[in-house]
What does this fold into?
Amino acid sequence: MASSSNGVVFTKEQSWKVDFSTAAATREPFGQIIRTTAQIQPSQGDQQIITAKTAGIVLFPNGDVVDGKAVGAGQSLFSIEGGGMADNNLMVRYSGAESEYNRAKAEYDRKKELAKDNIVSQSELLKAQTEFTNAEAVFNNLRKNFSAGKQTVSSPISGFITQVLVSNGQYAEAGQPVLVVSQNRDLLIKAELQPKYFSILGGITSANIKVLDDGRTFTLEELNGRVVSFGKSSDLANPLIPVVFQVKNSAGLLSGSFVEMYIKTQTNAQAITVPNESVVEEMGNYFVYVQLTPEFFEKREIKKGVTDGFRTEVVSGIADSDRVVAKGAILVKLAQASGALDAHSGHVH
It folds into this structure.
């Protein structure tokens, strides 16, 4: 019969009523863990900045062009109107482009017929063709989205509006950003590390990502992620070294938000680890509950090392042959303190 001066009985009947499980302490490769905060950003290929195609007044047809609105590829988002402006009048430009197109086309058609009888030279014909091609390109560019005296601009991709950069009725120059649309499928996670880690950045093998808002933790592999790059230098303005990961947004991550990262590096060193939930803190000391029999557990003090977001390194206090409480350790602690498990303790937060 197992006994311990620091033991507690926790019966199977008690464990069935709560979220409880045990797990073996594991000896495994456990390299240096870099714990840091990182920001989620949209990837370059996942985001499109939609600009004004010409100078004029930006008009949103409805009042629902706002951050977060879903849009489809080819959907009209806004129009640019310049008919009432004295300078750079869009209607005048359209009429001028149409007139130049008709003139260049007529001239090219005329010289093409004359060239058949060698009345005009090939160089003259080529010049007329070039003028017609240029005029046609300018006219088609305006005509493609021009109607009712204004130019309509559509979304090139399906996604969500993430930024509205101008107000309804505001004047915009040609090429000025108006909206940002993101698909929110591929994301970048950018961490900035102290220069002391530079020598081990080439040995990054993976990372675990903890969402600060709800506490969920994901491995880089779960998000189909990879290391994209890390900085090779630093400067006085920003001495930190950027490390960038790319992930698939299968977990509903929010672009612009921050996450906690546990960056894992390559190693041959072995360490004993237990699940994070196994470790109980008490007045600055750390303990785990080691299972001695199916219903008897010993509270054992440990010296803990680093965590990778899922498991914690145990420097001393247990062996890799020990089995510890993985889920429900705090409930075993309560049982030890009270001598009995409160039926509602599983709902205490």
About this structure: Residues 95-143 form one domain. The helical segments are 12-16, 90-116, 122-143, 329-338. The two ends are 35 Å apart (CA to CA). The mean pLDDT is 86.
